[in-house]
Structures are given as structure tokens and as C-alpha cells.
Amino acid sequence: MTLTAGAVTPVLEAAGGAGGHSIAGFLLTLAAILVAAKLFGEVAERIGQPAVLGELLAGVVLGASALGVIPAAGPTAEIITILAELGVLVLLFEIGLETDLREMRKVGGSAISVAAVGVLLPFLAGYLFWSNVPHGMGDPDTLSTAAVFIGAALTATSVGITARVLSDLSNLGSIEGRIIIGAAVIDDVLGLVILTVVSGIAAGGSVSPYSVARILGVAVGFLVIAVAIGGWVAPRLFRSIANMKVSYAVPTIALAIAFALAAVADLAGSAMIMGAFAAGIILARTEQYNAIEDRVKPVGALLTPIFFVSVGSSLDINLLNPTRPGGGFLLLVALGLTVLAVVTKVAAGYASPWKKFRRLAVGVGMVPRGEVGLIFADVGRRSGLLTDDVFSVVLLMVMGTTFVAPPLLKLLFRGQSTDVGAEHLL
Amino acid sequence: MTLTAGAVTPVLEAAGGAGGHSIAGFLLTLAAILVAAKLFGEVAERIGQPAVLGELLAGVVLGASALGVIPAAGPTAEIITILAELGVLVLLFEIGLETDLREMRKVGGSAISVAAVGVLLPFLAGYLFWSNVPHGMGDPDTLSTAAVFIGAALTATSVGITARVLSDLSNLGSIEGRIIIGAAVIDDVLGLVILTVVSGIAAGGSVSPYSVARILGVAVGFLVIAVAIGGWVAPRLFRSIANMKVSYAVPTIALAIAFALAAVADLAGSAMIMGAFAAGIILARTEQYNAIEDRVKPVGALLTPIFFVSVGSSLDINLLNPTRPGGGFLLLVALGLTVLAVVTKVAAGYASPWKKFRRLAVGVGMVPRGEVGLIFADVGRRSGLLTDDVFSVVLLMVMGTTFVAPPLLKLLFRGQSTDVGAEHLL
Q1: Does the interface ipTM go beyond 0.85?
Q2: Domain residue spans in chain B?
Q3: How many helices (H) and strands (E) does chain B have?
Q4: Is the pTM here over 0.80, yes or no?
Q5: How far A7 CA lies from chain B's nearest CA (Å)?
Q6: I need a surface site. Which of A89, A299, B130, B359 has the fewest CB within 10 A?
Q7: Is residue A419 within 8 Å of A172, Cβ to Cβ?
Q8: Exposed (0-12), middle (13-18) or buried (19+): which is B66, by Cβ within 10 Å?
Q9: Do A8 and B51 touch (CB under 8 A)?
Q10: Beta bridge partners of A369
Q11: Per-residue pLDDT, A369
Q12: The domain over range A97-287+319-417 is classified in CATH as 1.10.510.10
């Protein structure tokens, strides 16, 4: 039987086209990722944590340094990375789709000030911490560039995690909820602008104030132009698409637009996820908004966990061993960075001089870093600027903030459900 | 601006992980595939043809020999192939999910005889045609192996296309409809067994009657064992999964099972799509069957067109030029094969001695070849056994049968809606 299987396999593999490598191996890895994501996500939810935390842990367990189910390199690793990339694009598209520009405008002033302070403080704290505290990690020559990355990774609050927690607590519609979501979206945008600037620095381009301003102009300009033109074209375009007879035309073309705008953002010198996010904001204004969301959600539900598992799998668990030389110190540095990350965002909650709202609740709501922080860490690692040690520190910080916020929020918002839910009708 | 973009791109590409190649290029190709699939699918439906035909044509137009949007080789081509592969696995999983073994048993005798004759006749006709008619294509040394491939490619009716046409005509529930679907599923299974045997032959293994019997035993044995064990385990397993708090656990784990069984089928020496199909049949028996179908459908709707577009893109349109030397002859050979494909399946409709049913309607319903025929052609081409000329001939045959059947079926079933639809309630 082994002989027969051996004879048949090459042809079937040729049909798979994985460059002569085992497509069966890739499929088994993919299946393991999906199952582990759900099992670990379930455990996380049962102990009151968001599922995304479980997905990160699933990645750590499946990663090359632990079980080794997800290889560190090779064709399977590459395909998983592409699927993860598609997953994060679909996620940012969905977040954009949920962003109502008009609703945002009402809490705009407070959200902007919370976001601005919540980007500035963590960035400065991270930068100063990394460039001044003697941690002995990374190349001294690129220390200040690495410090910029560390600072940048601290800036962006996770819209996905925060929105999910608030929605679980029926507090998405409260004034604090709206400020948190608004500020989280704005600091994502600011974070993405910083990512673009930082990427330019990392690539070794000449970083005059002029070139920084230009990168910033391109990034913001891309978003403004895309939203302005798209906001006019999309509703008209999708009215025609909705009349098409062929099935799934609306969601399929919507995703195609997200992928295309991601590519355009990349080619324009901005970040890909910015393009997907812009596509979401644009399509949020179409009449087909609900149909798009309904049908894109199952696709995102499949692909997005692959991103989080994939990121988790990058953590080398050997680096966390406190008994190895420098191991305890690394954990200490990660703890220090996490404390800074929490304190600075909570402080940002007190930023707005206008409006009456519970400032502590807003600050805590801004704490969880997530996808954008992970993207920073990932870009830094792949560009060779962040060593595996430093990458692990950032990953631990993201996990730490994601751990801390949900239970605190639950405490702060307890019994304060403001959304009209089924329980009010009883 | 060009300079800045140039400096930033490498880092952002590193984040994409496309091995240093442009991930933006891949995303644009993917977007083009999705949009073209829907636009060509729409045109096809408007002129009364199934959307899949439009998707194949979209592939031809985007392919390397025409617009060149889908490259013939390189990282983008490889990733598209993997996504296409996932698409065909999800499609076969969905077909399995729609297969009710109990319903099938009622028309079992007729379906089996129609399927058996409908596999035997086209196989023999294709084999004899290719090995005896002087067409001058392919290597004379491997002529008889290629003839086996050609015969095999003629065997399997497309469940997807047939089911869709019958459902459009509200005739899925008629006796003819059930026989057609039953026979189409059975001949898919027989076709897959033949694929496995033929792949073994293609790989140059020793092909004694004993080894053929063994491959056949493995293929059928895999299906029987998977369905037997899975049919007992799955309902119990999914009752637990349905109680999980984490979102999308049921459809995600269902797809993971489909991918894992596809891998196991491959490793056991059977065809991957057989594994995905078996997973569908197994999960059709769970109580969560509807939830799985609802949430897998949008994923399939996104991925499956990529398969058909990808297959269409393999057609070299230069080979179809009737003015080039031998070009007209190639078209003639394709026409001959298409006529054989139609005549032999219509004849199979008259196969069952039992039951009263409209034999012509059943025969015509069996005509459209589709995914399985295309998979045969694809495997043959990738293994180097079918030259591009021969591959194009098979592709034209598949397109031809897919063109011919729907309008004929519409004529034969006109005004005979048997399914209880909304119109009966008015």
C-alpha cells in the first residue's frame, strides 16, 4: 500500500501545485490551525477573556518552537502567511465597514483628543524606555530605529478586541463606548501613518522632515481621496451590482475592492491594511452595507484566526524560559513595557477637556493593543530591525494588555448596560 | 513620490511574506479574478447559461495567452493555484453536504445503472476515439495512457452544474431530478476511483490487475470507512461543538475536517476531493447541517470561482486559431469528442430497466461535465501526459457539454415544476 500511495502522490501533488511539496501537509497544518484556534478561543472565552487571546496562544503552542505543527519556513509557512495576510485585510475591511463616520462626528472632539494623547504618550514612553533603559537587546547601531518601532507598537488600540468586549457588555452605544471606538479607529489611522513613516526609516531612506511630511501626506491623502471618491462612486456602483442575477456578486466585488485598494495603498507608499480599512469605510455608505457584512463575516471568521495564530506562532517559547541566561530579564523588560502600555493609555482617557464621561472607563477601554500592534511587531521582525528577543517582548506586551483590559472593563461597566437589548423588553 | 514608495515597499512586502515578490501584484490579480468571474458569470446567466461557463471564459480572457492578468508561473500563479485548490475542496464538501444518502437509496437502482452505463460508455468511446482516430496529437509512446485520461475525463457528470440547473427549473425533487443527482454523485465517485487508478498509471507504477484492484479497494474503502466511522462520530462531536461559546466554531471545525480528510485521502492514495466529499456526506447527518451549509456557502462562493477561472486561464487561445497549421483540425477533434460526450451520456439515460421515468430528460441531465472532468484534464496536464493541445481539446469538450445541456433541459422540463414552491401557495 505504501508503494502504491508513493506512486500516486506525485501526480496528485502536481494537481495541487505546491511546487512539488506536499499539499497534504499544508492541508493538515491548516486544519490544525483552525481547530486549535477554536479550542483555545473557547477556553479563553470560558475564563472571561476574548477569543483572540486564545488564538494567539494556539499559535504559540502550534509554533516551530513548541509542537512544530506550523513550520518556520518553507512553502507551507509561506501559504499560511498569505492566508493570514488575507485574514487581516478582511478584518480591517470589516472594521471599516462598522465605522459610521456620522456617528463618530458627534463624539469627534473627545475621541480625537483621547486618540492623539493616546498615541503620543505611549509612543514617547516606549521610545524613551527602549533607548534609555539598559536592556541589552538588539544591535546598538539600530537601537534608536528599534526604539521608534517599539514606541509605534504601543500606539494603536485594537478596535476589534475593544468593540467585541463593549458589545459583550452591551455598552457599545454608551458615550464612553462611542468615544472608545472613535478614538480606537483614529489611533489606528495615526498608528498606520506612523507605521508608514517608520517603515520608510527602516528601509534606510533619507529621513528628512520633508520626506516624513511627504509620507504622512501620502498616507492621509490616500485615505481622504479614496473615501471622497469612493463615497460618491460606491453607492451608485453597488446599486447596479445589487441588480445582478449572478449569486454573491455584492460581497465578492466588495472584497475585490478591498483587496484592490490594499494593493493601491501599498503601491502609493501607504500600508495595505489602510487600503482595506478605507474600502470598508467607503462601502459602509452603500445601501448594500448589510448584505456585504452578512456575507463577508463568514469569510473573515475563517481567515482572521489564521492571522492571530500565525502571529502567535512567531513567538519563540525558549526565549521565555526564565532559567536560561537573560531569560528572567527579558520577562522583566516585557513586564515593564506592558505597565507603560497600560498606564499611558489610561492617562489618555483623561485627555478631553469637553463633555462629561467616565474618564477611567475610557482609558481602560483603550488599553488592549491588538492587530495593529502585532502588525508593527511583524513588520519590524521581517525587516530584520527587531531581533527575535525584541519581537517576543512586543508580543508579550500585546498579549499582556489584551489580558488585562477585558476583566477591568467588565468591572467598570458592571450593571450599566445602555444598549437596548432583549432584557429591557421583558 | 516614486522614491519614497520605493523605499517603503520592501518592508511592507516583507510583511506580506510573498518571498520578496510583490504582494500588491497578487492582490490585484485576485481582485481581477473575482470581478471578472462575476461579470462573465452575469453575462452567462443573462443568456440562459450557468454562471460557471462565464467563469471559465473569464479565466480564458485573463489567462497568460490573452490579457496576461493571471501569470502562467511564479509566486502569484502558485498562490492562485492553492486558493483554487481550496475552492474545489470547499465545492466538493458542499456537494457532499447536499447529498442525502437515504433519499438516494429510493432511486438507487436506477441511479446506479444510469451512472454505471454513463461511466462505461463515455470511457470506452473516449478511449477508442483517442487511440484509433488519427489526430496526431501527443507523444505516440504514451498515446494509450493519454487515451485512458481522455476516456476518464468523459465519465463524470458535474453535480454542481446539474443541481443548479434543476433547482432553477424547480425540478430537483422530480423522479428524473433525483435520478440525475444520484447518478451524478455515483459517477463522481466512480470517476474519482478511475482518477486514482489513472494517476497510478500516469506515475508509471507497475499496473498489474492486482494493483488496480488495490487502488480501487483503497479508494472505495476510504469512502466507506470514513462515512461509517464519521457517520457515528460526527453527530456526537458536533452536538458538543454546537455548545461552544466561541463564534463560528461549527463551520470552522467542519471545514477543518474537510481539509483534514482531503489530506488523509491523498496520503491513503486516493484523490483529495474524495476526502472533502466524504466529509460533506458525513456532516450532512449532523443536526448542525443547516448552520454548516449557511456559513460555508459564502466561503465557497468566494473560493470556488477562483478554481473555474484558474482552469479557464490554462487554455492557450492561440491553439484555437483555425488559421494556424492544424488549428482547424484541433477544433474538429474537440467537436468530435464533444459529440461523443453528449451521445454516450444521453444513451446512458436509457439504462435502467426499472421504474418509469423520462429517459431522455435523465440522459440530457447527465451531459454537463464540469469540475471532475476539469480536474482530470488538470492532473493530466500537470503530470505532463496531456500536451497543451490535448488539454485544450478536453477543456473545449467540458465547455461544450456545459453549453449544450442547460437550454435543452429547460426545454424538456418546461412547465413541469414538481417542487413545492411559493407559487403553489398563491
Answers
A1: no
A2: 107-295+319-416
A3: 17, 0
A4: yes
A5: 6
A6: B359
A7: yes
A8: middle
A9: no
A10: A157
A11: 87
A12: no
